[in-house]
Specification:
The chain has 1 helix and 5 strands; from the N terminus they run βββββα. The protein is mainly β and 65 residues long. A hairpin with a 5-residue loop joins strand 2 and strand 3.
């Protein structure tokens, strides 16, 4: 797993991760491994997109910061 400046991951079971803010520890979103790649959802469970890797999904969150 890559290092991220603003976020960190917490594994929540097979193929699921919570994404939290490094400084505030608030939920930023979640990542789910699917057959189409890694689905990124925001903190309100709204799908933001499917990505080829977890790192790409995190970059999707950086676009919102």
């Amino acid at each position: 797993m890559g290092q991220f400046e603003h976020f960190y991951l917490i594994e929540q079971g097979h193929g699921r991760w919570a994404v939290r803010h490094q400084i505030t520890d608030e939920l930023a979103g979640s990542i789910l491994r699917t057959a189409q790649g890694y689905r990124l959802r925001n903190e309100h469970s709204r799908t933001l997109g499917n990505f080829a890797s977890i790192e790409d999904a995190i970059q999707g969150l950086y676009a919102l910061v």
